[in-house]
Every structure is written in structure tokens, then in C-alpha cells.
């Protein structure tokens, strides 16, 4: 399948990663120019803003939030702009975490591989937000259950899934599975803009943990 990258070599490489070590190497290399590369008109990376709006609409601004796959902190900055006060972040790349730390919006930042079990207790956060990592060659659908595990009762998972990976990557099947029981309910699953400069869309998930 042809994927719309706008010819950006970092995005092209991102869609063919071979594992966490490869991801760490790419994002460490990319950290210095990541924001400029993605937020300009050519890519129009609006997913952080769109997702922050969804978080606040569902959960408000109080409580403790985890930005899983926080990168340089684009999502954390958007959440802070909307009045969210307590945000922690996890990312596989130390270089990206350094940029996120410089934003000043995070309470705590830690290196973590989201393809593995999180080193966090059950019921740690009121909201887990995940933008840009549930996509080709990154973090697979099994992470959704792990995110749910660390969310408190009545809390929310708000996440983007790249639209052309929604079915083929197994994310839809996993969302259906975890929502089939009595633990998680789907508040909304909508098509939303992701990289508007390339007309790339995502599925924006708002799931509530009962």
C-alpha cells in the first residue's frame, strides 16, 4: 500500500522500523527537527491538538494524565494550553524525552518501550493519551490492554490509530475485543485529521474504563 509521507525521509523510515532499538535510533536522530518537520504546512500534524481537544471534552482538565509515546512533547504542550496540570510522559527515545523535558509541562518523564509491559501499577492514571505511536511498525494493538490496565475506574484512554493501519494492523479487532466485556466501553471512534497537509486521517478513540 502506498503511504502518504510527503517525501519526508524520516516518516518513510518510521513506517518500516524493525523494533524498539531501531525506533530509538530514528527518533534520537530526528529529535532536533521533529517539531519543525511535522508541524509545518507540508505535513500539518494536527493530531496533538485534535486529541487534546478530545481529552478535555471527555475527561476535563483535572486528574493525572499519562502521555504514552510523548515524543518531543507536542501533546503535552497542547494539554497544558487547555489547562491540564498533571502530565507524565513515556517514550522510547532519550533524545525525544530531552526535547519534551524542555517544554516544562511534564511532571515526570521516563524512557519506556511501549511494546512491552509498562512498569506501572494498576490504576495509576485518570487518563492515558497516545498519539502517533499506534501506527505502522511502531506499537501494536496489544498495547491498548496495557494502557487500560493503568487507567483508574471511570478514566479514559484517548488515542489515535493511523487510518490505513486501523484494520490491517489489527487495532479495530483489538478495540472490539476489549470493548466486548464489562471493563471498557467505546465512547466514540471517529475519523479525524492526522497530518492534514497530506490528507492523512486517523481513528480517534475515546474509550472509558468502567
TrEMBL record:
User: Does the keyword section mention DNA damage?
Assistant: no
Cite the entry's keywords alphabetically.
Methyltransferase, Transferase
Q: Which GO terms describe its biological process?
A: methylation
The first-level EC class reads transferase
Gene3D superfamilies documented for this protein: Vaccinia Virus protein VP39 (3.40.50.150)
- Cite a single GO MF annotation: methyltransferase activity
Methyltransferase type domain sequence ranges = 66-158
Assigned EC number: 2.1.-.-
PANTHER family from the xrefs?
JUVENILE HORMONE ACID O-METHYLTRANSFERASE (PTHR43464:SF23), METHYLTRANSFERASE (PTHR43464)
**UniProt name for this protein:** Class I SAM-dependent methyltransferase
Provide the organism lineage as a comma list. Answer: Bacteria, Bacillati, Actinomycetota, Actinomycetes, Pseudonocardiales
Amino acid at each position: 500500500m502506498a503511504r502518504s509521507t510527503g517525501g519526508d525521509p524520516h516518516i518513510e523510515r518510521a513506517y518500516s522500523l524493525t523494533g524498539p532499538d531501531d525506533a530509538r535510533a530514528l527518533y534520537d536522530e530526528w529529535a532536533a527537527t521533529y517539531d519543525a518537520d511535522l508541524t509545518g504546512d507540508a505535513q500539518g500534524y494536527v493530531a496533538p491538538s485534535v486529541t487534546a481537544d478530545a481529552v478535555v471534552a471527555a475527561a476535563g482538565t483535572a486528574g493525572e494524565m499519562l502521555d504514552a509515546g510523548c515524543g518531543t512533547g507536542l501533546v503535552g504542550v497542547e494539554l497544558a494550553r487547555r489547562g491540564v496540570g498533571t502530565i507524565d510522559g513515556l517514550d522510547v527515545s532519550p533524545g525525544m524525552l530531552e526535547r519534551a523535558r524542555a517544554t516544562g509541562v511534564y511532571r515526570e518523564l521516563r524512557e519506556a518501550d511501549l511494546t512491552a509491559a509498562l512498569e506501572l501499577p494498576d490504576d495509576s492514571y485518570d487518563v492515558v493519551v497516545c498519539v502517533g505511536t499506534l501506527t505502522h511498525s511502531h506499537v501494536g494493538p496489544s498495547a491498548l490492554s496495557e494502557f487500560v490496565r493503568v487507567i483508574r475506574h471511570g478514566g479514559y484512554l484517548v488515542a489515535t490509530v493511523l487510518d490505513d493501519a486501523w484494520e490491517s494492523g489489527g487495532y479495530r479487532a483489538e478495540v472490539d475485543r476489549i470493548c466486548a466485556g464489562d471493563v471498557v466501553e467505546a465512547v466514540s471512534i471517529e475519523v479525524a485529521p492526522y497530518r492534514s497537509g497530506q490528507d492523512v486521517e486517523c481513528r480517534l478513540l475515546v474509550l472509558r474504563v468502567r
